[in-house]
């Protein structure tokens, strides 16, 4: 049953990939109070709304956590497959973070410079672990985090106002879905090997 729910989630998120091609970027709804306006009631072009600002903060905090946890996993992971996955997360999320920081900077959105409290707690739970215990806990977290990240990206694609931010989300979603698929497969393999 768990595999079916996961496959359904991936299918739903995959269907969202077709939407950006037909979507019009920019969303005048949800203007932030005091936002610049072209004329009364019409927001200035490319001014990020509250959802885009929230998206940027959440995405950067999550991306920073992916890099930090990936670095931890390359040191403490028990298997080559987990360490290889972790190295991929470090490389690809570092690039995505760099791009998002640039997009958010152009939009004037202040960003965190460290993972949020939830991800710090996740790191604290992982630090004392090693080997198979670490691998199982890390990969379980990766599945959960990539589902949430895919949902966050889809939310920005549909609700954001800043066209560059929406393009970032649309460009990033396929890679996140691929990370999710790989994390799920690796977690199933680890659980099977552990006899869980």
Q: What general outline do the C-alpha atoms trace?
A: elongated
Global Rg: 18 Å
**Mean pLDDT over the residues:** 84
The secondary structure category is mainly alpha
Largest sheet: 2 strands, antiparallel
The helix content, as a percent range, equals over 70%
Q: How many individual β-strands?
A: 2
Low-confidence stretches: 1-5, 15-27
In what order do the strands lie side by side in the largest sheet?
1-2
Q: Tell me the fraction of residues in β-strands, as a range.
A: under 5%
Terminal residue distance: 15 Å
- Count, helices: 7
Order of H and E elements:
HHEEHHHHH
Describe this structure in words.
The protein has 196 residues and is mostly helical. The chain is built from seven helices and two strands, in the order ααββααααα. It has helices spanning 2-16, 18-22, 50-76, 80-107, 117-126, 131-159, 163-194; strands at residues 37-39, 42-43. Strands 1-2 form a two-stranded antiparallel ribbon. A hairpin with a 2-residue loop joins β1 and β2 (42-43). It is elongated, with a radius of gyration of 18 Å. Residues 1-5 and 15-27 have low confidence and may be disordered.
